[in-house]
Write a structure and sequence with these properties.
7 strands; Transposase_HTH_dom; 5-stranded antiparallel beta sheet; 305 residues; alpha+beta; metal ion binding; THAP-type domain-containing protein; metal-binding
Length: 305
């Protein structure tokens, strides 16, 4: 009824379609619908053709192999020749495309190399003025400090950078607060390697500072190094104490976020108490507290006074 398309026409059991409307004179399997002399253009969407059957070629014995004898000695199977089959070549020996082309005179770089192989900064190539700028230490103090810190480290980190270059990277990070990406570019290493170097040397520097640098000076030494202004106005002054805060990222844990929030800085911080001699020498550094702790609470808790 879809192909007849007559307005107001209702088919019944006695309705028939004339054979002149069929290409074969009657409905067939190839042309089951009326399409001729319909009084309008009738377009029939052809059905999807059935999939073609693939003919697989059987494997043939290699002509170079001689046929085996019919009688086979079952007890001598190990000495029988192996059968081989010629399965053909799955791909040609030659390549259709040449991907190893050259880009003119433009230098090509190995894509596996993530950073430049050479270091742009080295302690051996820096003069005394540059070392003071990068580390705050003169050349003599830098090499002396490196020699002392190595006594706390039994085995240095094994990287492409020398030990003095690793130590220079750590001091530049501490003094200038350079990002690891920047340090990696300067020293010719990746960002991850720069971070690993800093993480490796930081505990040794902290141990060296606690045991060799931050010490409480005896009173006779304090009297000898006390500035003249202190001798006149504060002759009995021993030390100066204060608290300082360091900004940190906001913790995800709500309790830790509350403990580290500082109402004074309006930020999440760590707070510590430090003590210096009248001439500025650091003699004591406390452990870290949350920014919520007050100066009085930290001082009383440490029983400093």
């Amino acid at each position: 009824m879809k192909y007849i398309n007559r307005d107001g026409f209702t088919a019944n059991k006695n309705t028939v379609v004339c054979g002149i409307h069929f290409p074969d004179g009657q409905p067939t399997r190839e042309n089951p619908y009326p399409v001729l002399f319909m009084g309008y253009d009738c377009r029939v969407t052809p059905a999807r053709p059935p999939p073609k059957k693939r003919c697989l070629q059987p494997l043939h014995l290699n002509s170079a192999i001689e046929p085996m004898e019919t009688d086979v000695d079952v007890g001598n199977l190990e000495n029988l020749p192996l059968q081989t089959r010629d399965v053909g070549i799955q791909w040609p020996d030659h390549m259709d495309h040449n991907y190893s082309f050259s880009c003119g005179n433009k230098p090509m770089k190995d894509c596996g190399t993530q950073t430049d192989p050479t270091s742009l900064v080295s302690a051996k190539n820096l003069n005394n003025k540059d070392l003071i700028f990068y580390t705050g230490l003169c050349a003599y103090s830098f090499w002396l400090l490196l020699r002392v810190v190595l006594t706390f480290c039994s085995q240095p980190l094994n990287t492409k950078l020398a030990v003095h270059e690793q130590f220079l990277l750590v001091l530049m990070r501490l003094r200038l607060s350079l990002l690891f990406t920047d340090l990696g570019k300067r020293f010719g290493v990746s960002r991850t390697t720069a971070s690993e170097i800093f993480t490796f040397w930081r505990p040794f520097l902290a141990r060296f500072m606690r045991e060799k640098v931050i010490v409480w000076l005896p009173r006779d030494t304090l009297n000898r190094i006390r500035p003249k202004t202190f001798n006149k106005n504060y002759p009995k002054a021993t030390c100066i104490i204060d608290c300082t805060e360091v900004f940190v990222q906001r913790p995800k844990n709500l309790r830790k976020r509350s403990l580290t929030y500082s109402n004074y800085k309006h930020h999440n911080t760590y707070k510590l108490l430090y003590c210096i001699a009248p001439n500025g020498y650091v003699m004591f550094v406390s452990k870290l507290f949350g920014g919520r702790a007050s100066d009085n609470f930290i001082t009383l808790l440490l029983a400093f006074l």
